Amino acid sequence: MLRQLEGSAAVAETVALCRPEVVCAYPISPQTHIVEGLADLVAEGRLQPCEYMMVESEFAAMSVCIGASAAGARAYTATASQGLLYMTEALYNASGLGLPIVMTVANRAIGAPINIWNDHSDAMSQRDSGWIQLYAETNQEAVDLHAQAFKIAERLSLPVMVCMDGFVLTHAYERIDLPSAAAVDAFLPPFEPRQVLDPADPMTIGAMVGPEAFAEVRYLAHAKQMQALDVIPEVAGEFERAFGRPSGGLVRGYRLDDAETVVVALGSVLGTIEDAIDAMREEGVRIGALAIKSFRPFPLEEVRGALAGARRVVVLEKAMAVGIGGIVSTDIRMALSGRQVNGYTVIAGLGGRPITGASLRRLFAEAVEDRLEPLSFLDMDWDRVRAELARMAEGGRSGPHAENILREVGVVAGRSH
Amino acid sequence: MEARVAAPSLAVMDGARKRFEVRVHGRGGQGVVTAAELLSVAAFDEGHHAQAFPSFGSERMGAPVVAFCRFSEWPIRTREPVAEPDALIVQDPTLLHQVDLFGGLDRDGYVLLNSSRDIEELGLAEFAAGFRAERWLTVPAGEIARRHLGKPLPNAALLGGFAALSGQLKLESVLAAIGERFHGAAGEGNATAARECFQLVARQMLRSVSRA
User: Fold this and answer.
1) pLDDT of residue B41
2) pLDDT for B56
């Protein structure tokens, strides 16, 4: 049914329709509304049987999900930012053990400096954690991806992260077609675990593995992610047949036919990018976009195919690998190995800085003329950066960067010197 | 039942617009975010595509807060903040000297301020003259809300005024959105306040039309 809903509320409702038997989470902005919504649904008896467990930390939340999943329960959690980092050790355990937990990541920056706003630093930091990572462009897709995520996770016995932009999506009200309970039940069969801790049939999960077999067990995690390259589009196809709308999958092209310039991005910024591309197309610029929907596994073949006609590729990233620059760009380069393509990495929207259509059109105009640096930063205030670098160069006690820059911006912070 | 005053729809003069964008300014605790959300629900009820989202600053009571709502006949793809609003709703007039309230406002834009003083008394007449001044109005939404809710929360009341001023949404849709969100006494109080604001604004507009 079509409703005007907050993204978080819609995700909570959809997760409930997927009938998790254990929900265990620790609240953190901007994920809070999702888990509050689920807590309400459990408390009101609208989601049952389900145990909503209160714990003291994200590390505990993921640990409970691991235990629940190993005992054969469909388990769900959600987090963001520092919360995701705090559960890192358990994340690797969930994937290493092959437990099909589903988690929403309400993407948010990582401190220091502390910042509650949106970017992709949190999920990107767990790129190699062994979790499948799917990115939602809209709240409709966030809803749809959750139903798909449980199916993908359980078919492969691997955990799945559904990444949705914090605030930009989680706190946005928009038109959402919420699936019915019957439709979700028909789409998502009950969880049949591949491995289960059962007192009637005792076994252990989580053996210590030495050099004699570690590589083989680890390789299986990779092999399953490679299988996910088939399973993700398969499930997206099943979803489209059941619900009548495309959602998810590995990649999605926008106006790629004859596009000489292709902008690659993940998540909700694609909407703003598409508007900018339409405006430039009207001026005759041959430009298109490629949405990466599955970042892990990374669909090398599909990306290579989608970029086959591109002369230049602009990768717009909402995260940064300090010390080199792009994160997604590295994978795009891998997909394009052996091909001569002008590649540009643009870091944008860090810590919630708005990515505007006007800035994108300026950026793309520079790109189509190959006037971009290999690594650039959208709407960076270089004067402030230079001023702080100069202060450092003077030597002595130049003070903390965050407070120094905030003072220049005019935001009150800390004591003045 | 109160008699309904029909609001002359100034928006008709603009012809069919592709998209209408509203920026709501207020302070933490006044329901700024809720106001934008309710607008989007009202627009959705009328068959529009609508998007509402907040711009959270410091999450604390009293801090300046901005929220956005855009609606359109077409799906809305952009996620950027509303930089060039067609309408401004200002829930707290003390923001006038603190925040760049009018930044990017369309020359033909609407401004609705929560105040018992009029535009001239607020010292805005000269500035408003650079716009279509007849589209700049104030309404004592906080006082009206205090009467009907017991609390000076102006957000829902102002939406009634917005419906009258902009002609973009029907009062009925705004009331339905309020009814969906607030229940019991809060629902009735907010609905009554919104209705009263609608009528006050509609009367001011009739006066300004008859003067012209």
Assistant:
1) 98
2) 67
